[in-house]
Amino acid sequence: MGCKRVPSNDESTENNDYSLQLSRWFLISIGAWPQTHRSTVLERLSAFVLIPVFSAAVAINAMPCLLYVFFEAKDIQSKLNAAGPLIHRFMGSVNYWMLLSRNNDMRDCIRHMETDWRLVRRAEDRELMIQYSKFGRFIAVMCAVFMQSGAILFSVAKAVKTITVVIDNQTITMHPMTCPAYRKLIDARFSPANEIMLIIQFTSTYVTSASTVCVCSLAAVFAMHSCGQLNVLYVWLNELTENHDEENLAEKKLTVVVEHHLRVLGFIARIESIMHKACFVELMGCTINMCLVGYYTLMNWAAFDAAKIISYVIVYLSMGFNIFIFCYIGEILTEQCRNVGDMAYMTNWYKLHHRTALGFVLIIAQSSNVIKITAGKLFNLSITTFGDVVKTSIVYLNILRTMAM
């Protein structure tokens, strides 16, 4: 673990910014990027303005729709048609609230990452971290593409066409909405209320989708950063027994390894603390919405409106991808944490001085207490959980189809 080249602070900041770039863009766009001493006056002012405006847009869109579902929609099909977009707004609202309420914790995680980049002393360790940061960035890009395109297409596919209705012997043309409004509160059939509510609907769609993108992309970036750190740790463990005749050098190396291991575990515990509520909302919400989107697809298949069918398929895939990412993150972090103990056991620890070798017990003991990413501290996120979610959504879809027929 010798020093070949000490990276500059600018390089460390640049690498960290590269990892977080996409997440930062979306967080800034909804006013949720953590403010630091480097934040400009414009960034602080935009956050001050955007947060109440976007919160109001989501509330104005969601509350009348909730009243519509309970008091105006007469049949089960009308209620189900409005339920999917309404649940999406609820999920996005919870994610938005989580991003704002855990702003300080997110800032601490970002600073933790910056410190990790500054602590890297060797080019090969830095390259290993960059590989994982690129993969985390790739996942963030895929999250943005799937979720934003799915949500926007779903809204546009319904609103792009106009329908003609007769009200009090008056024929009017209007744009249908994915979130219908309770007419006694807001009658969105008439112009300009229809156009205004449509703009509010698109705004709330972007905010809720962007919030979900931020949560998913941050979880991916944080998790991949942790994996990069754990893989650096594997390299250090393998090198620990080199020059095993030099007891003091081996003890110093072991001290660095143990401290770094505890640092990474602390970071993973913080990820779990920040994300577990959002993971629970995503797990429950996406399961229900995958069921509803499947129902919408079946109900519209006979008419085969290509725009609607394509939008439903993309939304279904985006939600499935969203759950898969969270489950994959939970799986890979659990596996990587456990591997540290396995790596410690597989090294040539018996070649070290017995006092130094005893230090491996601490690493193995820490690795046996695996920190798991959970959904609301109720379900462990893993690939098995993803399979259960897909099966559950299909079961609910069959129940819905039976009820609606």
From TrEMBL:
The keyword DNA repair does not apply. Keywords: Cell membrane, Membrane, Olfaction, Receptor, Sensory transduction, Transducer, Transmembrane, Transmembrane helix. One of its GO terms (biological process) is signal transduction. It comes from the Eukaryota. It holds the Pfam family 7tm_6. It is found in: Cell membrane. This is Odorant receptor. It comes from Dinoponera quadriceps. The lineage of its organism: Eukaryota, Metazoa, Ecdysozoa, Arthropoda, Hexapoda. The gene is LOC106744606.
